[in-house]
Design brief:
Helices cover 19% and strands 15% of the residues. It contains nine helices and 18 strands. A four-stranded antiparallel β-sheet has the order 8-9-7-12. A four-stranded antiparallel β-sheet has the order 14-15-13-18. A two-stranded antiparallel ribbon has the order 1-4. A hairpin with a 6-residue loop joins strand 5 and strand 6. The longest helix has 11 residues.
Amino acid sequence: VTEDFYGSSRCYEDSNGVIKLPKPTVQHVKYDEINNSDHARRVHLEGWSFLEHDEAQWVTVEYATGKLTGEDSRPIRKENVDLFRTMPEKAWLYFSKLTGLEPVARSSLLPEDFPMDGPFSVRVSGIDKTATDQNVVAFFEESNIIVKQVEQFEEPRHTARVDFNDVASLEQALQLTGRTLLRRKVKVELWGDNGTAAAPSALPGSVPPKPYEGPLPDTGPFKIVIRSLDKSVDRDDLGYFFWDRQCEVCDIEYPLKGERHAGIVEFKDVDSLRRALGLNRTIYKGREVQVDLYTPRDEKLRQGGSGGGGGGDRGDRGDRGDREGRKGGGKGKKGGGGKGFGDGERRERHDRDPPSRSEFGSERPRLDLKPRTKPLPGDPNYREEASRGSGARSDPFGGARPRDDRFKPTRADGDDNWRR
């Protein structure tokens, strides 16, 4: 946009840099009201306008790389950052015409030794559990990509192989990684055994894990965040997953309140940390797990997460957690002689007096006694009331008595002939 337009719009920003867009003057339905059947009918049948957005934020796009940054280092949604990083072709053609810049020369996402005779296949992971083959086909056809065949797998779950007719369709399909299929963002990558011979024991389309070569902390704690775990995984399963792969575990925080199917694992040394990060994208219990280095931004995941307690499933339950933690058992809650994961710290109990009502803002009001109006015995106006006996008590039946029909008088009561 022009500098004048940019400058004039800044006065509408709030403290978070968000601009409230003006509402249209015509009859309209907001994006969060479309689920209402009555509102949907108005949009589709009565011609009401559909308000797709009501807020905006200024961002800066680096045309050559697709890097997206916010004004004054304000945060941007991750899905938007990932989308612009792929430099969608339609959007970049629009930017090119708008700014008069030359179209970006796109580098191929295929390796240099990729066989041009195929197969032209991708591996789609992270698929929603309710997605069908038709949903996968529609995902690619929305971008005008013709799908030849779809094959979903039982193991690893939520994964499919998608075949295309030519290399051009394959290139376009690889650009869709990070897009949403139904309710989940999927990862689209080149099929693992394209042009190479896959190992006999390898899972379909899986990519062998690579040793981690990124930065590592010099001092502890040495922690990672593992995501996309199967719902059947418990705390001990997670510990033995790393223990069996020569990673010495110190502590485990799982499950986490801030994110489902994720956990934080701390290791004894940097070598164990490096080996654990090399397990990224490993298939565990049918799911491809994601292993990332722990950063301060992941601190929010720990809110409410369990931890401590050697053999127990949760170490944040007061004395019970302390007792289970001191057992230090190997698996589950029973303890034992095995090696426990995460001895944790014993929680101290601090005795204190019970809180007063004033601490809760609910102090009981003082009793306000009114002057007595009825005279006491010995006062001049005292009058002794007649004592009520038990007979004077009010009768709820009004003096009535129950009927006794069990012994009605008969003829035999009038004479005694029957006795003869």
